[in-house]
Amino acid sequence: MRLHGAELLEIHLPVVDPIVTAAGGEEVRIVLLVRADLGEAVGWGECVAFHLPYYSSEYIEAAAEVLRHHLVPRLAAAQEPLTPERIPALLAPVHGHRMAKAALECAVLDGWLRAEGRSLADWLGGTRAAVDCGVSIGFQESVEQLVATVGGYLDAGYRRIKLKVGPGWDLEPVAAVRAAFGDEVPLQVDANCAYDPRDAAHLGRLRALDRHGLQLIEQPFGSELLLDHAELAASVETPICLDESITSVATLETALAVGACTVVNVKLGRVGGVLAARAIHDRCEEAGIPVWCGGMLESGVGRAANVALASLPNFRLPGDISESRRYFAEDITTPFTMDDGQITVPTGPGIGVEPDPERLERLCVRRTPVEL
Ligand code: MG
Question: In this structure, is residue 46 part of a structural domain?
Answer without folding.
Answer: yes
